[in-house]
Amino acid sequence: MLVLPHGGGGWSPKLTDRYPWLQVDLRDRMEVTAVATQGRHDSSDWVRGYMLLFSDTGRVWKQYRQEDNVGRFVGNVDADGVVQHKLPHPIRTRFLRFVPLDWSSVGRVGLRAEVYGCTYKSYVADFDGRSSLLYRFNQKSMSTAKDVISLRFKSRQAEGVLLHGEGQRGDYITLELHRGKLALHLNLDDTRVRTSGAREAVTLGSLLDDQHWHSVLIERFNRQVNFTLDRHTQHFRTRGDGDTLEVDYELSFGGIPLPGKPGTFLRRNFHGCMENLYYNGVNIIDLAKRRKPQIYSVGNVTFSCSGPQLVAATFLSSSSSFLSLPAPPPTPEGLSMRLQFRTWNADGLLLSGRLAQEPQRLVLQISSGRLHLTHQTTALKTSEVSTGQRVNDGLWHSVSLSTRGMQITMTLDNEPSSTIQLQDQLLSRDTFYFGGCPESQGDEECSNPTMAFQGCMRLILINNQPIDLILVQRGRLGTYHQLQFDICGIRDRCLPNFCEHGGRCSQSWGSFQCDCTGTGYSGATCHNSIYEASCEAYRLIGSSSGYFSIDPDGSGPLGPMQVYCNMTEQKVWTVVLHNTSNAVKVQGSTLERPHVMQFNYSASPDQLHALVASSDQCQQEVVYQCRKSRLFNTWDGTPLSYWLDRRGEKRTYWGGYLPGVQQCSCSLEENCMDMNYFCNCDADKETWVNDTGILSYKDHLPVREIIIGDTHRPGSEAVYNIGPLRCHGDRSLWNAASFYQESSYLHFPTLQSTLSIDISFYFKTGAPSGVFLENLGFKDFIRVELSSPSTVTFSFDVGDGPVILSAKSPVPLNDRQWHWVQAERNVKEASLQVDQLPLRFLETAADAHLHLKLSGQLFVGGSASRQHGFLGCMRALRVNGAHLDLDERAKLTPGVSSGCPGHCSHSASLCHNRGRCIEQSGGYICDCTHSAYTGPSCKDEVSVSFEKGSSVSYAFRDSFLVMRDSSSSQGSSTVSTESRENVAFSFVTTQTPAMLLTISTTSLQYVAIILAHNGSLQIWYRLHEERRPDVFSPTPFSLADGRLHRVRIHREAKDVYVQVDQDSKKYTLSSDTELNSVRSLTLGKVTGTDVLDEKVAMAGSKGFVGCFSSVQYNHVAPLKAALLNRGSSLVTIRGNLVEASCEALAASTSNSFTDHVEEPDRANEQDGGVTRHDSAVIGGVVTAVVFSSLCVLAAMTRFLYQHRQARRAASLQEKETQRRLEAAYHAELHHNMHSSTLHMRDSLREYYI
């Protein structure tokens, strides 16, 4: 109990106590609701932080964790101040331990503690693994529409049935432990389950065999079920056709006493304790304890929770933990070892010991999830056996070693034993090391083969002698380092699963990882979409028409959707197809029995809503032709045909954007064939008439269903065709606001995402500093600001103190040009990206707070203090994929206006092909640095003629460095790239086979684009060294025809979109692995590599002869770099390259081929007309041959002359172009090429202009 200030006392351990604690015995199990601490009175001793452990028996302790799984309690800062912590969830326990973690820097450990709570009463039953309780009904069966079952349990095993009941018609309910997880099987009259025998379970929790209490609550009403385990609830609908659960005779608790009943499956009985077991208000344990006739006891069920306490030790460090134990005298049978372990780590040393026969050693270790036993006889000779699969699954595993005669046997769990043959009998020395080796020991004594063991061990036996770990803890047996005793500190870091969007979680002892393969998302928690938000965004990164996956809500809950992006028109149209593309003919329908057609789109309703909401305009064409088929009743206007909008609401207009008007397009355009009607069909003509219209009121789109009712009369029929949904524009890209006053701001609702949050936007300003956005909580906050003219800062606090990430630009950011910012914080890391600057990120500590708790409004362009506001423009602000409407809020806010001034602040395409629009005082200019094109608007192609043996290689520097913030003192840096490539080029050639383009990596991956022997295009993807490459052939015909061909390849994860000229196709790779560390890109001949497959290598040796034009790989233009930077170390040129016009070369080659083909045909025709066998035949043949030869010679002369003229003109053009572009491009290559391997998304953000 805490003492008054004038009192004295307090606990302080001995200075020699290595791991001190203060233990409190409450005399009985109590419900603890709060704890409080003070330092030692009138001293410099106090505890600044501590762990709180609890136990029912004084053995087998468990650490109490607060919200966010934080295990550290904040202590005192002086001797007499009281710090109280109210526990978010009470503890029902008898014993508490306060374990100091750090203490006063001017004194030592000093502690006074007080515990708050109340008495706790429970009804307990103990099951020994062979016993159970049967609750028998008064009638043959019990049928219930509502059930409530609650209990608490603690288990010594990972398997066991807690509850089971079943009925003859197929109903059943089973609650069981399986592999340490709690599984609920529930079925209501589902005949499919009876026939298939399959039982699906809903699972919760893990590591439930920890010998500690867990609470369970099952609530069922009809088929709706709430399943709760330790405050984690899962809601689901049970399988089956009924609403009631029908159970025959009885419910069993603790096991299934009568296996073999219909539908019963064999499981192990529960071994452990239950308390407060209630079934629909009935106290089962109380009835059993009072021996009521409704309860029948099977086996030995006792009513107190007892049993052996299995003391475990936790090895905390993967580098320095170890336990050294003396070896007892060997038994007559020889050397033997036994232990149990559990871990998440795939590698770790379990046991190492030197043998009496020098230099022999015995090593037992986990390697790649398997158990390995190594007997080392000499420095070079070892014998080894292995067993098991994924022994790092977090479950307890038992392993034993024993020697009999001239062999040593290893046994894992219940698997078959593995044996090593010996040359002589093994004799142990005096010491064995468990879990790791001391740093002071040399390699001869003990060494960790990979890493030390990080996990839990218990039940250690050496030569059949059990090891008392409590004696080890007290220093009376062996030595140890970095161990915790009488506690297993294993945690399931994948529960709950923080991997978003279906990412798969895996874990090690101290962290978890997310596998985002196949999800369409990337990042540490699969938070970021790998797809663009719209077709407009794809256009801005240089893509052409084709099928794409878009993700309108970015990192939001909606997944990506596949659409067709039509970029051939002035507007970029997003096209969503449905299941009925052909015209449908309708006859015989009435209003009572109408024709009904439902339309299923290639996207979900929520995805369609997101697309429509984010688009400027949407429309859908309804082609409707009729003959004696009316849309509306002539007398009262009742609709005879209508359609349903996306919400399922009835709509009766057939064109235009005025939903309240019951009309067709002809009425809106005032051109109906009979002006007495609003639709042509309502004139009820016997001839075919048309009421085709465009639906453009986007809040009603797309059309979900069409109903036609007036085609039953003689000669009556209708034909309709509903077109795809077509939308254009991206409202978020150009949604902007201008801030003119430092005290002005826009406010939005509080940010709600507490675990993961990403913020992205563009800004331009001339001010030296300003707050972009800020959201505050009671203690937590998040802020993004321009802290200096060249620095953007991202700061936040989730309860562990402020975290600051800063990105510093080598050039000022207040240059009145657009700059892009993306800040993200999740449970794994925080990151900040500005333009193409190196990514700054900081890993989150393993036991840090997770939830960001905010309460105030979100301020944009300012802060809550109304100081240091932002002056300038912001646009395209997105938070967790949802765009914030700056434009609309700005209309209502003083000091802020909607939109941004300037030429580069709207969606008009001033600069093409990835050109960047740069504001000037008198207009704008286009920066074509990252474009494969040149010219004032980045429209002029850059073309080069290749001769035999020529090639251009572009070398990428090291992958851009991921820089950790200077404030970081721990954590590792990783780079997560997305599986995405964009390749575009044009070419002219007549050569086969030919190598067009090769992309190679340092990890033996490659992408190759070749022309095969028959001239067809082939695309080779080799993403795994050990797998066969993926090969696609989009064109069965030859492209080596001397014509100009345009090739575009766009890859997103597994999806590859290929466009050759106007033909688009989609392919699927066998893997979505990214290209790791791209090394080089080569155009033309490739030599000196054994990585390429045979066909690719053959094409590479042949090289390329012809013309390349406008070559682009992501944001790199290698051909342009070769022309403008011939001396650069990044560009290697072999052979003679001359700037030329591919279009002119294609035209000349085409003419030459035409002349060459036509004349021999004429000669053949002449030869075919000759039928006489005399001297005239010889003369005719000679004449034809000579004439053909002259034609071929003339064609070749003409081709060479035009090619020479093209080279001469190109040479002059090259000098002029080089003078115009060399300065900008040379500076970019030699000063900013560290960004050349940035991900495409990052590198192209600034092109959203």
Q: Spans of 5+ residues with little confidence (pLDDT < 50)?
A: 193-197, 260-265, 958-978, 1153-1183, 1199-1249
Tally of strands = 86
CA(first)-CA(last) distance: 67 Å
Average residue pLDDT:
83
Outline:
globular
Secondary-structure content class: mainly beta
Helix content: 10-25%
From the alpha carbons, calculate the radius of gyration and give it in angstroms: 39 Å
User: What assembly state would you assign to the polypeptide chains in this entry?
Assistant: single chain
Report strand %: 35-45%
- Given the structure, what is the number of helices? 12
Biggest sheet: strands, sense, closure?
A: 9 strands, antiparallel
Domain F5/8 type C: 1-118
Family: Belongs to the neurexin family.
Domain Laminin G: 124-305, 312-488, 735-900, 950-1142
Biased composition (Basic and acidic residues): 1155-1170
Characterization of this structure:
By secondary structure, this protein is mainly β. It is 12% helix and 39% strand. Strands 41, 42, 43, 44, 46, 49, 50, 52 and 53 form a nine-stranded antiparallel β-sheet that branches. Strands 54, 56, 61, 62, 63, 65, 66, 67 and 74 form a nine-stranded mixed β-sheet that branches. Strands 8, 10, 11, 12, 13, 17, 18 and 21 form an eight-stranded mixed β-sheet that branches. Helix 10 runs antiparallel to helix 11. The longest helix has 57 residues, at 1175-1231. The chain is globular. The two termini are 67 Å apart. The relative contact order is 0.06. The model is unreliable at 193-197, 260-265, 958-978, 1153-1183 and 1199-1249 (pLDDT under 50).
